[in-house]
TrEMBL record:
Keyword Oxidoreductase attributed: yes
Active site as annotated: 253
EC number: 1.2.1.-
Domain of life assignment: Bacteria
Top-rank EC class of the record's enzyme: oxidoreductase
Family to which the UniProt record says this protein belongs: Belongs to the aldehyde dehydrogenase family.
The organism of origin for this protein: Methyloligella solikamskensis
Stretches assigned to the Aldehyde dehydrogenase domain: 19-476
Database matches in InterPro entries: Ald_DH/histidinol_DH (IPR016161), Ald_DH_C (IPR016163), Ald_DH_CS_CYS (IPR016160), Ald_DH_CS_GLU (IPR029510), Ald_DH_N (IPR016162), Aldehyde_DH_dom (IPR015590), Aldehyde_DH_Superfamily (IPR050740), Succ_semiAld_DH (IPR010102)
Keywords, ordered alphabetically: Oxidoreductase
UniProt xrefs under PROSITE patterns: ALDEHYDE_DEHYDR_CYS, ALDEHYDE_DEHYDR_GLU
Name used for this protein in its record: NAD-dependent succinate-semialdehyde dehydrogenase
Length: 482
């Protein structure tokens, strides 16, 4: 049964022990600015100790059968699910998203644990028809080894479980560096992993404000054979370079500039609902948010009016308050960026309806907005907004929409709204993105591969592809068979 009053650790986790430090940093509620807790501000030395622990724990953990590991993961899933309410409240306090969204994320994060508790038992090798008499060919899958994860603040539970669950299911051990904005969620699910029976050293959490130093150690230590990172493209490129000398395997889920294309033949209600879900959840702070909303001329005005009408009813406030749909942005820099992008667009001729700073709002709040007459030469259509502003770009023809959508170095997500099945399929195939939602604003789940192309990253998370990211394929040739 969920205990809404359950308290979670505020110390880092290394080798099964909770580690404090003289140097700490504060975790604050973005809605109020109030301090929630202080956590240890660790550095390179402690990161090395965490790698030591993971390396020491690797042989015993990898030697367990897939079924044994799966049973422990299933217990972890049950514990996380049972603590949905306490975890959701903790997440809302440190991250700011509405409580309903936090509950949804706990379920989403737990789904990866459940999925990989089963999928680990399906890490199949294969037999290959021989090319030479007297020989037999087989492949087996083996864990890659010690892994490291650097995770973001916008989904502080799901972005960890999506990485840790397949790693543990594969037989790997893990060192996690969570965002300094949201370390408490990471420590909470790590504690539940220990309660489920994950052995000491298998799952370590290093809290720190010194991301460059921690990241450098994770990248340069040769014992770490895999790095997985979710965050900006700029940081991802730095980590990519730093991993080169030890030739690590990488999964990089980087920035996006998702186009959402609405054709004249779209169902207006579906298109608006899908846009609301994609654009405004988590106050627009997701990597797959619709960043450029391309709307065909014939439906443009009706779509813009309907979208604006829908957001008028959105409650803005603390995520713990009843009726809140839009919580605070994560920090002052996030607010400044949104304001800068909007100001640039307005200066160049766009118009913004509603939105912005409201009277009596806290300093990190930004009310949802619809921007009309945006163009592709504005910063707001080329940079990730990461805020609740929908920038609408008008287009005429299908070919123009495809060209506009693909005119970006990024390729994470894209969306298409059309009731014409031929058009929807044709456009989805031509969009340069790792994931495409057709008449859907939310598509991510544990059973489907998540990831991008171009400068949006490498590799996939979730699904069977997510397990493969933590395994090596070994070919064995058996000779001398008469």
């Amino acid at each position: 049964m969920t205990d809404e009053t359950k308290t979670y650790p505020t110390d880092a986790l290394i080798d099964g022990a909770w580690i404090g430090a003289d140097r700490t940093f504060a975790v604050t509620d973005p809605a109020t600015g109030d301090e929630i807790a202080k956590v240890p501000d660790l550095g390179a030395a402690e990161t090395t100790k965490a790698i030591d622990a993971a390396y020491k724990a690797l042989p015993e953990w990898s030697a367990k059968t897939a079924k044994q590991r799966g049973q422990i993961l299933k217990k972890w899933f049950d514990l996380v699910t049972a603590q949905t309410e306490s975890l959701a409240r903790l997440m809302t306090l440190e991250q700011g998203k509405p409580l309903t969204e936090s509950r949804g994320e706990v379920a989403y994060g737990a789904s990866f644990i459940e999925w990989f508790s089963e999928e680990g038992k399906r890490a199949y090798g294969r037999t290959i028809p021989t090319t030479v008499e007297g020989k037999r060919y087989v492949t087996i899958k083996q864990p890659i080894g010690v892994c490291a994860a650097i995770t973001p603040w916008n989904f502080p539970i799901a972005m960890i479980t999506r990485k840790v669950a397949p790693a543990l299911a594969a037989g790997c051990t893990m060192v996690v560096k969570p965002s300094e904005e949201t370390p408490l969620s990471a420590l909470a699910i790590a504690e539940l992993a220990l309660e489920a029976g994950v052995p000491a050293g298998v799952f370590n959490v290093v809290t720190s404000t010194d991301a460059p130093s921690v990241g450098k150690v994770l990248c340069e230590d040769s014992r770490v054979r895999k790095l997985t990172f979710t965050g900006s493209t700029a940081v991802g490129k730095t980590l990519y370079r730093q991993c080169a000398d030890t030739v690590k395997k990488l999964t990089l889920e980087l920035g996006g500039n998702a186009p959402l294309v609405v054709f004249d033949d779209a169902d207006l209600d579906k298109a608006v609902a899908g846009t609301l879900a994609s654009k405004y959840r988590n106050a627009g702070q997701t990597c797959v948010c619709a960043n450029r909303i391309l709307v065909q001329s014939g439906i443009y005005d009706r779509f813009a009016d309907a979208l604006l009408e829908a957001i008028q009813s959105y409650g803005v406030g603390s995520g713990l308050e009843e009726g809140t749909v839009i919580g605070p942005l994560i920090n002052k820099d996030a607010v400044k960026k949104v304001e800068s992008l909007v100001a640039d667009a307005v200066e160049q001729g766009a118009s913004i309806s509603s939105g912005g700073k409201g009277e009596g709002d806290g300093e990190l709040f930004y009310r949802p907005a619809v921007m009309r007459d945006a163009t592709t030469d504005m910063r707001i259509t080329s940079e990730e907004i990461f805020g609740p502003v929908a920038a609408l770009v008008r287009f005429e023809a299908e070919s123009e929409a495809i060209d506009l959508a693909n005119d970006t170095p990024f390729g994470l997500a894209a969306y298409v709204f059309s009731e014409n099945l031929s058009r929807a399929w044709r456009v989805a195939e031509k969009l340069e993105a790792g994931m495409v939602g057709v008449n859907e604003g939310i598509f991510s789940n544990e059973a489907a591969p998540f990831g991008g192309i171009k400068e949006s990253g490498l590799g996939r998370e979730g699904a069977s592809e997510g397990l493969d990211e933590y395994m090596e394929t070994k070919f064995i040739c058996l000779g001398g068979i008469a």
